[in-house]
Amino acid sequence: MVDFISQADRYLFPNYARYPVSFVKGEGVYLYDTEGKKYIDMLAGIAVNTLGHSHPDIVDAICKQASQLIHTSNLFYIQPQIEVAKLLVENSCLDKAFFCNSGAEANETAIKLVRKYFYDRGKPEKYEIITFTGGFHGRTIGSLTATAQPKYHEGFKPLLQGIRYAEFNNPDSLKDAISENTAAIMFEFIQGEGGVNPINQEFLQEIKNIAQENGLLIVVDEVQTGIGRTGKLFAYQHYDICPDIITLAKGLGGGVPVGAVLAKREIADSFQPGTHGSTFGGNYLATAAARVVLEHVLSDGFLEDVTQKGKYLEEKLKELGLETRGKGLMLGSPLPEDIKAGDIAKKALENGLVVGTAGGNTLRFVPPLIITRDQIDEALEVLAKVVQF
Fold this sequence. Notes:
Aspartate Aminotransferase, domain 2, four-stranded mixed β-sheet, 17% strand, Aspartate Aminotransferase, domain 1, globular, seven-stranded mixed β-sheet
């Protein structure tokens, strides 16, 4: 293992602070490392492995598709891509879908789409997008700019023009950020990387009011909250709102890289041939996997079960003395200043539990949506050993 890690240090960019573990096998909610040690996974590849590891239906779909056709490009019609678009559109309030490869790409697409929409309407001066402190939208230069966290900006300025910041859950700050150039408001219902921080209902209502009064588009980043993570297919379905644009990725492909943007028809139609594209976006392999994920998540009782298991996990975390916030199987537990979330995650890993961290010294729990109550108990038995107040 030491030699293997040294090879990684020799040949890979040093931009990840990796744990000294390499997994070689996964089954359901369990992972196995090179030494054969078993771990229970409460991170799911950072909210990605919706149906767990090596789900037989995803494996079968990928193998079958790979044996037939993997990629042709979007110069041609791709049947599973159209089928996935149909599932997303018919189970949402949006009208059309665009496919890419990641959440950052999806958010870049949304930024371009907002600008093109207003340009087409003779309002090129409407190009500014308001985002919020604590949010996270990606690491490409556009999505990085949309991420209102200075720590991610260091070393990458000048950033993209046209992004203005306001304080999350602060209506007055939002009002102050509005200008004659404002085109859209972009936010997460639950800020994942920012510490699993949910939006306030009153603040959401203010966003709706301001958008309506000023003719602004509402763009919702559901990269982490989408595809059943909160107990609904989309987090917006918990609220009285239909966004103009939604961005997706992470859980959509169950581990296969795929991103998507959903939009209302009149907005989506701003992207005519030549305006935007993606070579790999929505190719056969990615959408074959996404189709299986959606079929499972939309099956009878699946989302209700996610909701109930989320409540169970929340209760169990509270029994350990941990505060919780979030929805469904996207929960965070902020820790006291004298207990570092990173140290807890490291100790948990040493004891066979994979758990994540997020901003604000928060433990993050985003397990595969197929996790059982018994497996939740198993995970928290390990956590109880390493979290002591």
